[in-house]
Design a protein that fits this description.
There is one protein chain. With 284 residues, the protein is α/β, with parallel strands linked by helices. Helix content is 41%, strand content 20%. Strand 10 and strand 11 form a beta hairpin. Helix 1 crosses helix 2 and helix 6 packs parallel to helix 7.
């Protein structure tokens, strides 16, 4: 089969599930991964004869896409803040909104009296995208990171090695934690915050593939992670320390009120690139 024919077949198989722009994006990612081709090669080399081995890889990926498996899991990798990350079913796929949170943290640290030799704690590391990206941009900081999942910690450690950074990873259930191992200048967390009642808003490729442990909270207590982390941060942030959260857009008011009730000051709420309330900075 030549490349042009495969592109037609690929589009036909996926057209009922995805918009054309997304199908094209998938196609370009796959031919780059399995054929070593760039986007322009789909035109310049449209008559390229695909080998059986290459076709088998492309067909397998196509079948997985038909089952709505995320392209990042199919390829086993993604990019976050310009850095490469290995991902699998044990970790969430890093989102653009989290890149915005990271950018805010970096700018805050580098533009204030805070030194880049901070002690920073990330809670709920997943793929390790937050602590690893912070370490790349704040190389003199000492960064620790917690996750309840042993499998997530394994992925995060692999990504730290991939990006050549040193992070202190710890497997720990933050909800059962009564004390942190030291005090910190800055604590950042993107904890589970999607309520069960919001599942109907979640696309199938997320709902059926990404780890629910890292996504969902019970409807009756949706801020339990924020409540717990904010309490720990009150005790284990240094004076004038900073607490950053990624938050549920529907619970912004409630999250701000929770932090105010605990005595945090100068609380800032920011929207993401989609115009949704998505991140908070609170000062101890």
């Amino acid at each position: 089969m030549i490349l042009k024919e495969f592109k037609t077949l690929f589009t036909d198989k996926l057209s009922e599930l995805y918009p054309q722009t997304e199908i094209d994006s998938f196609f370009f990612l796959l031919i780059e991964e399995y054929l070593g081709f760039e986007r322009i090669d789909t035109v310049l080399k449209s008559a390229f004869e695909i080998s059986q081995e290459q076709f088998n890889l492309l067909e397998s990926a196509t079948n997985k896409l038909q089952k709505e498996e995320p392209i990042q899991y199919i390829l086993g990798k993604t990019e976050f803040y310009g850095l490469p990350f290995f991902v699998n079913e044990h970790v969430l796929i890093p989102r653009p909104e989290t890149e915005e949170l990271i950018e805010w943290v970096i700018k805050k640290v580098t533009s204030t009296s805070l030194s880049d030799q901070n002690n920073i704690l990330d809670i709920g590391t997943g793929s390790g995208c937050i602590p690893i990206t912070l370490k790349k941009h704040l190389p003199h900081a000492t960064i620790s990171s917690i996750d309840v999942s042993e499998n997530a910690i394994k992925v995060a450690k692999k990504n730290a090695e991939l990006n050549n950074v040193d992070i202190n990873f710890m497997q720990q259930d933050i909800l059962k934690t009564t004390a942190l191992h030291q005090k910190f200048d800055l604590i950042v967390s993107n904890p589970p915050y999607v309520r069960e009642l919001e599942k109907e808003e979640i696309k199938n490729n997320v709902l059926e593939n990404e780890p629910h442990l890292a996504l969902f909270v019970e409807d009756h207590n949706p801020l339990l992670f924020y409540d717990k982390i904010a309490d720990l941060a009150k005790e284990f942030l240094l004076e004038n320390g900073l607490l950053f959260f990624e938050i549920n857009q529907y619970l912004a008011k409630e999250t701000v009120e929770l932090l105010e009730a605990k005595g945090y000051k100068n609380i800032e709420l920011r929207k993401d690139l989609f115009g949704n309330d998505r991140m908070i900075l609170a000062h101890k």
